[in-house]
Amino acid sequence: MTEQVPPADPPDLAPQRELVSADPGTPATSTGRVGAAAATTGGISPADAGPGSASTATATTADVIVVGAGPAGSAVSYYLAAAGLDVLLLEKTSFPREKVCGDGLTPRAVKALTAMGVPIAESDGWLRNKGLRIIGGGGRIELDWPELSSYPGYGMVRTRADFDQILARHAEKAGARLVEGANVTSPLLDDRTGRITGVTTKDGRQYRGRLVVAADGNSSRLSVAMGLHKRDDRPLGVAVRTYYTSPRHNDDYLEAWLDLWDGNSLLPGYGWIFGMGDGTSNVGLGLLNTSTGFGEIDYRDLLRKWLAGMPAEWGFTEENRTQPVRGAALPMGFNRTPHYTKGLLLAGDAGGMVNPFNGEGIAYALEAGEIAARVITQALARPTGSGRERVLQTYPSQLKDAYGGYYTLGRIFVDLIGKPSIMQFCTRHGVKRPAVMRFTMKLLGNLTETRGGDAVDRLLNAVSKMTPAA
Ligand SMILES: Cc1cc2nc3c(=O)[nH]c(=O)nc-3n(C[C@H](O)[C@H](O)[C@H](O)COP(=O)(O)OP(=O)(O)OC[C@H]3O[C@@H](n4cnc5c(N)ncnc54)[C@H](O)[C@@H]3O)c2cc1C
Questions:
Q1: Distance from chain centroid for Cα 253
Q2: pTM of the shown model
Q3: Distance from Cα 207 to the centre of ligand 1, integer Å
Q4: What contacts 312, CB < 8 A, 6 or more positions away?
């Protein structure tokens, strides 16, 4: 759907609130508050808003519309609100809601949560872990997370039903206005410039902002509607998971199994067992699209066969399964670009930001949310349309600086391990060698000192920097 708006100074992001009046029928935010009232619970009132914010926010207009309240959407909303901008965070579901995930948080994700000021005390239900246990090729090794100044020495687990709700409420506390049950169906466009000026939801409501962030996950309907499709020259993963009641629910290590077989072929991917500390384990497996039979694999059957080889006392049986087996795609290595176009920024899975080396997406969604918010805050503080646009155009390059070289290496890695002989060689000869595995852990987890560090850190950082950005 397109919407005619008055011509703007090209390319302009001038506030458009005056075009729309408040809609009394608009659903209340989840706390029943809109606008300045948010300040009463510690949020930042639009009245206190910083540069670029207008004081005439209505229930359907804001400086920034964020679509999707997963980790990326909540992070960008939190940072924007904390910077004093007025943010509407539109989420199609209502919290708490499930999200298909392994629920594993590496030290990278812990760092991002800490930076956002999310309370992550163990007494609040966050289960910490010391590292990674890798099983494969007849070997088994426990690797502690590296001791670094740049990242904490522990990871965590938290079900996504809890996790996503906590983050969304955290963004709300900072002043973002969360609207649950807002299913975005299409962008509102400026007919003259093709810029996005807002979105329409399934119930016919229109929400307008100076900028829009697509944080609506892997399928990113909004990006597609803006002509941004998935790139098939980038890696893609598919993963399935479920939960079992299990005596293994309290585990100090995240456990990864490299032995996933399709007949005689070792598949590129891994199975995981993550104890959730609540009587259950999150058990699942993920595969990369670089294996020859990728499209034909029956994931549920593969999961069943893999679990059939587990010790009976772990309890991974049908009777102990507490959830259906659910699957979803992992969009990797920037599989949707450009990350900024015509007033729309992409963050998290919408921009294909999952790490191709290990399938981790939460940390990157949180980090991209922070980068996007920083760019938007600076852009909206510029007095002219061309000045704002100049800043917005740096978003893709900032993402490339942060991850581009590393993701290019990731593409090479997934191509290599897509060859069963190479996957088999690495598994058989790697897992039994602690030094090799410590190196591998830093590489796959993207966990090196940002400055200096040991020889491995310096080598990995140098190679990532020298590799052309994806
Ligand atoms: C099986 C599996 C296991 C995984 N395990 C891990 C793991 O252990 N650790 C890890 O770090 N990563 C893991 N990942 C990846 C991780 O889940 C994602 O990378 C992460 O959720 C991305 O966050 P996001 O905010 O970009 O998107 P999402 O988490 O997908 O959030 C998108 C949000 O947008 C909303 N939305 C969608 N469409 C609309 C619309 N039209 N209107 C309004 N709202 C909309 C959705 O309801 C959702 O709330 C796993 C993925 C899978 C599939």
A1: 22
A2: 0.89
A3: 23
A4: none
